[in-house]
Design brief:
By secondary structure, the protein is α+β, with helices and mostly antiparallel strands. It is built from five helices and 18 strands.
Length: 287
């Protein structure tokens, strides 16, 4: 594997660049992350996944948003990272563990006929509804069904952490322009000390939900694994869906299962887009 080798893959249109910390000769910081993720000056991506050593799991993962901030967990990012590990020979096991800032997760790989990872199932951990642990500044122990006003409009919000913070808004109609306008405002509200991921969700049936996503540090996103987990958790909590739910997004669908102890399992496909080597000319932009 060449020095500064990268792989770009997507999970339902949510794309990430994967790098190995032991195989790059530059410092990954805010400037380099923003440049690499820029669609004009870099490769273009919804974020960077950095393979790092771990003393607690088989592999370690750090997740960076395109604005340079670091995320605790990403469902699509995890599945993409697991495909990278399997396809490029870091593991031959179909079951392994990955440490993230949002906790340790278990992954299971299903192969294609060519021996590549295609469908990845990830145990995403436990949904956390306690306000202080999300975190969200709320007078109640759980921020479920609370009202807020944003730019003159009132929303009913439902907050949960699945290793990273989420704010779910249940609607009768999904409008992309509203998600972009209000998602960007809600993300940075003072009640969310670490900012927040925002989802607008429209239940279709007891086992299907359609959503639109504003991702913290990334913006409007075609798909998000952790967002899907958050929406499913909230809707189960409110009794609006069964515990096995299909989440429908512009980029595709994910299967989410939530057990009685609020443990979350996510299953979905991932696909490699391209791989290559970061050029010296690109790296010199931030050196």
């Amino acid at each position: 594997m060449e020095k500064n080798f990268f792989v770009k893959s997507h999970g339902l249109g949510n794309d990430y660049i994967v790098l190995d910390s032991e195989n790059i000769d530059f410092k990954l910081n805010t400037e380099s992350i923003r440049t690499i993720c820029d669609v004009h000056y870099g490769i273009g991506s919804d974020g960077i996944l950095l393979k790092v050593p771990s003393k607690k799991a088989d592999f370690g993962l750090r997740i960076f948003n395109p604005d340079g901030s670091e995320a605790e967990k990403s469902g699509n990012g995890l599945r993409i990272f697991c495909k990278f590990l399997y396809d490029y020979g870091f593991t031959s096991s179909k079951v392994f563990f990955v440490e993230t800032k949002g906790g340790i997760v278990k992954a299971k790989v299903e192969e294609t006929k060519e021996g590549k990872a295609k469908v990845i199932t990830v145990d995403m951990g436990r949904a956390e509804f306690r306000s202080e642990n999300i975190p969200v500044k709320c007078e109640k122990d759980e921020c479920i069904g609370e009202k807020i006003k944003v730019d003159g409009r009132e929303f009913e919000i439902n907050c949960v952490s699945v290793g990273n913070p989420h704010c779910v808004i249940i609607v009768d109609e999904l409008k992309e322009e509203e998600v972009k306008k209000y998602g960007s405002l809600i993300e940075k509200l003072p009640v969310f000390p670490n900012r927040v991921n925002v989802q607008f969700a429209k239940p279709i049936s007891r086992n299907k939900v359609e959503i639109r996503i504003w991702e913290r540090g990334a913006g409007y996103t075609l798909a998000s694994g952790s967002s899907s987990c958050a929406v499913a958790s909230v809707l189960v909590k409110k009794g609006l869906t069964d515990r096995d739910v299909t989440i429908v997004m512009p980029g595709g669908e994910l299967k989410i299962s939530i057990d009685e102890n609020w443990n979350i399992r996510m299953t979905g496909e991932v696909q490699e887009i391209c791989n290559g080597k970061l050029s010296n000319e690109l790296i010199e932009r931030w050196r």
